[in-house]
Structure formats: C-alpha cells, structure tokens
Amino acid sequence: MLDFHMNQRCFANMTGYTNILKQADIFYQIPENQLEQVAGFCWENTYQLGEVIFLEGASSDELYVIVQGEVDIQVDPGLVSDQPG
Fold first, then answer.
1. Where exactly are the structural domains of the chain?
2. How far apart are CA 20 and CA 31, in angstroms?
3. Are residues 58 and 52 in contact, defined by beta-carbon separation less than 8 angstroms?
4. How far apart are the first and last CA of the chain?
C-alpha cells in the first residue's frame, strides 16, 4: 500500500512539473514525452526573501524555473561588457 501511494504521488508531481515546463519559453517546442522525461528530474525548492540561491561563477548542473515569485539577479559589472568579443 505504501509503495502504491508513493508511486501515485510521484506521478502527480511529474504531471505537475510537465505542465510547468510547458509554460517555460526554453521548453515550448519540446514534445510531451520528452518533457515527461525532464520532469522526472525535477524537484521543488522554496527560498526565503533575501536568500542567495547561487553565486555568479559557481559551477552547477541545475536549471531553475521560477514558478511563483521573483528573483533579483546581481551581476558583477566587471564581467559584463557591451563590446563584441
């Protein structure tokens, strides 16, 4: 019984994540079956006001999709140039 409950819960989360991904510009042309595969790697995090999510230049293998709320992105002006390469 517990395993079935857990599987149902995971499926419900995956369906929810798939629907969220469909709304993100980066995924808008991805077929449903591929979105479901991506959704299998998703999880939710909640952050508090003022909390740092990641730092510029830090290595990462994650992609963030903001579902609710907003974030401020702070960039070191010394690393940004309006001059071509």
1. 2-76
2. 14
3. no
4. 59
Q: 14 near 36, Cβ under 8 Å?
A: yes
Helix axes 2-23, 32-39, angle to 10 degrees: 120
User: What number of residues does the chain have?
Assistant: 85
Residue 48 CA to residue 50 CA, distance in Å, equals: 6
Residue 39 CA, distance from chain mean position: 10
Rounded Cα–Cα distance for residues 66 and 45 (Å): 10
pLDDT tens digits along 28-51: 899 999 999 999 888 888 999 999
Token pair for residue 70?
Answer: 């907003």
pLDDT in the model for residue 79: 74
Reported pTM: 0.66
